Amino acid sequence: MLTQSQIDFYHTFGFLQIHHYFTENELAIINAEFETGMAIAETIDKPRNDNEHLKWSTLGPESPFLRSLQEDTRFLGVAEQIYGADAVGVFCKSNRFSGNATAWHPDVENVRFQGIKFLFYLQSIDGDSGALRVIPGSHKNPLHDALLAIKLRGPYSPYLKASGLNINDIPAHICKSEPGDVIAFDFRIWHAAWGGTTDRRMCALNYYKNPKTEEEEGAVIELAEITKENEGRFLNPHYHPDWLKNGEGNVRRQRWIDWLHHYNYLD
Description:
This protein is of the alpha+beta class. The protein has 9 helices and 10 strands. Helices cover about 35% and strands about 20% of the residues.
């Protein structure tokens, strides 16, 4: 769980680094499940070029530990501290990055949306090897929309092209990370990566704030439409039938499933 100082840091700057979150034994399990998931993903569809990356859901039975993290208090408890006891667990996924850069972007452009992403790399990583870099405070306006206005977003950013700058020239905090560390960030924060290898491994868990206003609800509905449009980029469904069946009768998970149905993430 977070201290009040950590919560204040997260709200102010839009991200938080937490070190030594996993034990060595847990890391061994995570790596083994990552290998299994990657092998399955590669049988479905290999990337067409060196800049593409594999990504797959880890809510299936082949990833029992990674799947369990969505309901682990180390993650869910933090999401509930920040967004309330009715925060919603929505995605668990793994990624193997192949390119040497990720363009500047926020995961959500609408600043009325609120949610948190936790990610952790399975290798040591720094600013020259693909570490996450964030622009502190860019989850809020006026900075968030100012970066949209200058067209910083995307691999063909007009701003970067016109200015002659590269991704790594934009002032940012580099989230250097070791295996076992976790980075939490607001969906709205601008982030990117520079450098990297052809086998950069990362896992992520996403939680959304349950909307409390009409504006927040509209942002959730808007993101649901975008998510469904992009679902084809996943090599397996976001939500495994076994997870949706909820054979364990988990009350919290059922609430999440009902929420996902209500906002048309599943329909």
